[in-house]
Every structure is written in structure tokens, then in C-alpha cells.
């Protein structure tokens, strides 16, 4: 009897723990929406406005949103160009001892604080770009490189797991029909692993767009955001705008509400990317289960 009572109590405690995590997320979302609502009611002037100048009550966020996607997509392109070939090599071509060294080293990148990567970018990367390529150094290119370093572990790890999850029978059948190893990788393994690889890219995009400190330190952050026309120009993104301006925004002003509205926009973008990632992974799991 006492044992069953203890099980009931533990079950209730676990339920409360699970419910508390949902409630915390709900209250955070509700608070951000409440604070950002006055700015969101500005409608087209807020979403499609081209000028962000709080001193003149102008809160158009379109240049900031476009700059955010430019920085995120560029970083993801670099991470994909390096990460997917690396994942193919680790999964199919590298000796086991070499993989056991490289894979943990790549995953260690996740543990490096973003402020450390940002400081490295500011002191090394920005100076290198300014001295060898030109411009101010703090620019889109520096943001691409730093964010791609932060995105690489996700792209490599998830892509490699997807490649290794392709049934061995497919590979053996292809080799048995006379295909070379590289032909098997290109025509059999990669098509079957594409869902996982795509999920890694979408997840990496979400991480890149949501990153704050590292990107804040290397992209320049001009006082008035604009839509950039070159990779050596400084830009403002959603996260850096919130961090820079929240310290001097008057509480209760439309400026403060606009910064919370930026948080709402950022939350929606990242949530959509995570939803797409989840849908892709579930589709991949269902396909694997039907084989």
C-alpha cells in the first residue's frame, strides 16, 4: 500500500515538473507578446518600414530583418560547404581511430562560450579582414565566418548521424552491382540521408539567426540600420539591436515596446525553423520505419 502511494506521489511530482516547463515557456511568450503588442499595432510602418530611428519615433524593421537573414543564410552556406563534406568523410571514408579524434573535437566547439568566439572574431578576424581585404573589418563577412564556426558542429554531427543511419544493405547492394564507393555515396547514401542533412541545415539556420553575443561583436551595428549591398558593410541584426538599445530605452515608451516586438519577430522566425526541422526529422523517421 505504501509502495503504491509513493508511486502516485512520484508520478504527480513528475507531472508537475513537466507542466512547469510548459508554463514557463507560456508565460515568457505571453509577456513578450504583451510588451510588444503596442509596437505590433503599428502594422505596416513597423513590419515593412525602412527606417529604424527611435529618436524620431520611426520603428521600421525591414532592413534589420533582411540583414538578419543575409547574415544567417551566408553563415549557413559556409557551414554547409564545409560541414556536409566533412560529415561524408567521417561517416564513410575516415578510419575509425581518426573519426574518434575528430568527432569529439568538432563537438567541443559547441561548448565554447559565444563571447569567447566573439572576442576571437573581434581581435583576429576583424583585424585580418580590415588589413587584407579592406573596409572597417566589422562587417557581414566577419559575421558569416564566426556564425559558420558556431553552426558547424550541428551540421556535421546531425549530417554524419543521418549518413550512418542509411541501412548497410543499400550500400552493399550498390557495391554488389559494381558501383564504386564514391558512386554509392553520391547516388545511394546521400539521397537517403538528405532529410537528416536538410534538418541539420534548418537547425543551423535557427541557431545562426538566434545568436547574439558573437555576432554583436563583429558585424559593426551602424546607428541607423540599412539594407547592405556588399559583404564588407556593417549591419544590424535583430539580436544585436535588442541588446544594444534595451539598456537606454525608456520603460513604457514605444521604443521599449518596439524592442520587445523585435523579440516577437525573432521568436516567430526561430520557432518556424524549429518546426520545419521537427517535421523533416519525423518524416525521415517514418520513412525509416516503413523500410
Question: Could you characterize what this model shows?
Answer:
With 291 residues, the chain is mainly alpha-helical. 76% of the residues lie in helices and 1% in strands. The protein has helices spanning 2-40, 44-47, 62-93, 96-108, 114-132, 140-164, 168-176, 181-210, 213-218, 238-245, 254-290, and strands at 52-53, 58-59. The protein has a two-stranded antiparallel sheet with strand order 1-2. A hairpin with a 4-residue loop joins strand 1 (52-53) and strand 2. Helix 3 (62-93) runs parallel beside helix 6 and helix 10 packs antiparallel against helix 11 (254-290). The radius of gyration is 23 Å and the shape is globular.
Task: Output mean pLDDT.
Answer: 87
What is the helix tally? 11
Tell me the helix content. Answer: over 70%
Low-confidence stretches: none
Short structural summary:
With 291 residues, the chain is mainly α. It is 76% helix and 1% strand.
Core attributes:
11 helices; 291 residues; mainly alpha; 2 strands; two-stranded antiparallel sheet
Secondary structure blueprint with pairings:
Layout (H helix, E strand, L loop, with lengths): L1 H39 L3 H4 L4 E2 L4 E2 L2 H32 L2 H13 L5 H19 L7 H25 L3 H9 L4 H30 L2 H6 L19 H8 L8 H37 L1
Antiparallel strand pairs: 1-2
Helix pairs in contact: 1-11, 3-6, 3-8, 4-6, 5-6, 6-8, 7-8, 8-11, 10-11
